[in-house]
Amino acid sequence: MESIVYRTAWLTGLLLIAVSGEVFSADFNLRLHHFLPEASKIQQGFLEPWAQKIEEDSDGRIAISIHGGMSLGGAPSDLVSQVEDGTVDMVWTVAGYTPGKFPRTEVFELPTVHFRSAYASNRAIYANFELIAQDYTTVKPLLVHVNSGNAIHLQTQRSDALSPADLQGLSIRSPSRTGSWYIEALGASPVALPAPAIRPALVDKSIDGALLPFEILPDLNLTTMGLTSSMGKDGSRFGTSSFLLLMNPSTFNQLPEDLQQVLNQHTGLELYKAAGIIWDEMEVPGMQAQRDRLYTMGLDALDPFETIGQQVVNRWIDEVSKQGIDGQQLVDNARKYVGRYSRIITSVDVNF
């Protein structure tokens, strides 16, 4: 029911924009920069509808132009600095592309903390935002969210459930430093790569596989590569990635108060819910494409991965404690709220 209500509200807003047909001359033209192709589901299915709603609700006084594929210059790792220094007004990026810069936020991407749902973890992030707010002193966070979680995708062919022994000595793409720690603990070698670099690395055999959600597989043209995919039979994943929709604070402060309110109205709890539902639903095409090469693991097969995942959690707690951060409090709160909101199912059952 949650999925139907929020998706309907989202699409209804878009329909009103399309039907109105009005063309506005904006008072404030804002540029949003990101790393995925402009034809990606994330730009067309999430960023563009969000920007259009803001334009409509501001009576055309705010216009947000979206620039994908790093078309405004730089590398994905530069996006945070670009929004900090005002090169662009907004960015959508992966927290892990700037390792260690958002240490508190990392708690929500840890294995054994994130379970299987972007919706659940997004609700947990929103409910606990005051505990991670210090990560964002140089930017205005509009949305901090996750994807549905990492499956393990390998070039090697499989006929049974995955075990840590199968990963020994392999080179696996990692989305973040916590992902790298997990890969190391599993006995493989982590390779830090932004998403657009994954397919070339698989083609030239410089990596043997990747930690990735299913939603990105079609956009990166990975569903045609014969990869085998592994996840829990209960939908559980091997950690996740944190994503950041950030704004330059000076740009925000230059807006009149009524336009600041428009932005704030479109960056609250409803956006966190909508992003969770959209990301969970975006998993379905990639999972269906991998259907004949998707292996789901029972509790016994998952147990060694969970044990290793807890070792990564302990390492993270030790690491952030050196910065004066109470990592155990963050882990306890994150698990509590992820568990609470995981009772709300928004994604397809893995047994198609």
UniProtKB/TrEMBL annotation:
It comes from the Bacteria. The keyword Signal applies. One of its GO terms (biological process) is transmembrane transport. Keywords: Signal. CDD domains: PBP2_TRAP_Dctp3_4 (cd13665). Signal peptide: none annotated. The keyword Iron-sulfur does not apply. It holds the Pfam family DctP. This is TRAP-type C4-dicarboxylate transport system, periplasmic component. It comes from Reinekea blandensis MED297.
